[in-house]
User: What shape does this take?
Amino acid sequence: MTASPALGTTLQPATQAFLQHAPKQLLIGGEWMAAASGATFDTINPATGRPLVSVALAGDADVDQAVQAARRALEAGPWPSLSGAERGNLLWKTAELIEQHADELAELETLDNGKPLRAARHGDLPMAVRHFRYYAGWAGKLEGATIPVAHPDQFVYTLREPMGVVGLIIPWNFPLLMAAWKLAPALACGNTTVLKPAEETPLTALRLGELLAEVGFPPGVVNIVTGPGVPTGAALAAHMGVDKIAFTGSTEVGRKVMAAAAAGNLKRVSLELGGKSPNVVFADADLDKAIKGATWAVFSTSGQECVAGSRLFVEEAVYQPVLDGLAAQAQRIRVGPGFAPKAHIGPIVSDKQLQTIMGYIESGRSGGAQIVAGGERLGGELASGYFLQPTVFAHQDDSLRLVQEEIFGPVVAVTSFKDWDELIARANRTRYGLAAGAWTKDVSKAHRFARAVKAGTVWINAYGLFDAAAPFGGYKESGFGREMGREALDLYTQTKTVWVSL
Ligand code: NAP
Ligand code: MG
Assistant: This one.
């Protein structure tokens, strides 16, 4: 480890070497190259507000080159003739290589995204590895079916074939993990890919691109184009040579991706979008657990999680102790640079995102909601970074923007409820439907809640748990398509039916 005083920390030599080799380039057809225009942009360390490294900014021409490279790799060369078992071996090796480089990848994630090193190293990294291992297992198990039909002289069967060239557009909150969520099943199913990381956090995807070449993926199977939503993401979403886009991000951009598909080649689209998830504490809950659970449901990753439990409903009889407990927990959370060993949460990812969140805090204040903890940006030695106090609002007005809109920051809106019908109506009164939580000792109430709430994932006496095997996705405007688990295979394959006259 070498000291790097500018970053106030020590970095692995491999991390330093990666950052020194700049500007970072695009991965197209197995070659690293500058953007055709020569354009670059800086990626920023959100703990300091200072640039980390400059990165190639892909324009339409570069995206086109990447799509063409993916098409060539799909149709010729070794990739289409690999067996599922062989693809599985490559995915398994990817998992091993990520594990070997986990310390370095975690450092890059902390530098670029801001999250605590501990969270990156022991949260994001093992989950990314798990995704590659899980889908390594599926690659050789993509079975079709034999179909009994009403024609006795016909033999009918189905084949599961790749979608083709798949564009993967991902956000900045779990950069490497989001890449793994999409790459692992897409590759297991035999597709070729063009990955567009978020402009705020391109670094771990680029390092992963280097590792994939070491693993032995043929050139063009994974291409990486870095740059902002416009032009880079938009060029991919509109490209006539892309067969499918898998997108994770905001509902607003999800709509644009779908519109581009509709206006163009009707490419398949799957969307994992925003949320405004209700988390419910019933009076019979284990309150200590519920308070801690509700705290981390919204404040982990500084609230920058699509599933954040950002609307907390507390049954009237326990409202005050739960609100007080939550406020106390929020005040105990240590906010600091991701490399500070004691930091529980890091900075907000960008100045822009920080300003958006501050705007929501202001709107809550002026709308009559009451701040019971936090609400301020952190100054002093943290002033140059984007640090914000965990913030707790109490309210009784569900129409506030604070309550209706996704904030994507460490802000929770707490309210009380009296009875079941009121709770369910209010919990579902949102355009989103990504996730929900409930805290209760009553088993039947827990299951009734799981049925009544309109959300793609429901946690009971827990929150925010994920696994590669468990399907995940949204109801309503939180998107459609299920990633993870067996269901993700449906997103990355299409069915061909074959009729054979006997
Ligand atoms: P975002 O602005 O929607 O961006 C997501 C991705 O789309 C980024 O790579 C972005 O590029 C790109 N993009 C932006 N404009 C585009 C366009 N016109 N065409 C194609 N691509 C475009 O979301 P974000 O701010 O990065 O992430 C936060 C949002 O993601 C939140 O709403 C959150 O709920 C959602 N999210 C959802 C899930 C889930 O699984 N449902 C998980 C995590 C996050 P640039 O960033 O480079 O501009
Ligand atoms: Mg960054």
Residues 169-173, 196, 198-200, 228-230, 233-234, 237, 248-250, 253, 256-257, 272-275, 306, 406, 408, 434, 474, 479 surround NAP (ligand 1) (CB under 6 Å).
